[in-house]
Amino acid sequence: MSNIKNCAKCGKMFNYIAGDVICENCKKELEDKFQEVKKYIDENPGSGLKQISEDCNVTTKQLKKWILEERLMFTENSPIQITCENCGARIQTGRLCAKCKASVTNELSNTVKAKQQALAAEIAKKAQKPDAKSGMKFLKT
Ligand SMILES: [Zn+2]
Ligand SMILES: [Zn+2]
User: Fold this and answer.
1) How far are the Cα atoms of 33, 76, 78, 128, 129 from residue 37, in angstroms, in the given order?
2) What's the 77 CA to ligand 2 centre distance in angstroms?
3) What is the pLDDT at residue 82?
4) 107 C-alpha to center of ligand 1: Å?
């Protein structure tokens, strides 16, 4: 199935597949920009978001997006402070610290487990009913 959309960056029509609504050209340009920013941060670990944005000609919004995607990492001496959304611990990239990430994953799998158990119990209950009936019938005859 083809899905034609306008590129959010250059406006060109293109065959949209998944992810950001940008065409292949802009995607490549963005990737080049990312490599440039990454190199810049490596070389200038003490620069803040605004400075990176100005020197690399990229929006702070885009920088934050890369941080959330865990693509950009910042060392401890960077002025860019990223904190865990759950506990507020200092992290290098993303939304959550390793500890909170692990507990979120645990919670998720516990929910899945609980649902599976409930479903299994229900199936067992349903399966028991006809058995009980036929058992009674068997007793009557
Ligand atoms: Zn484009
Ligand atoms: Zn945390």
Assistant:
1) 6, 18, 14, 63, 65
2) 20
3) 93
4) 40
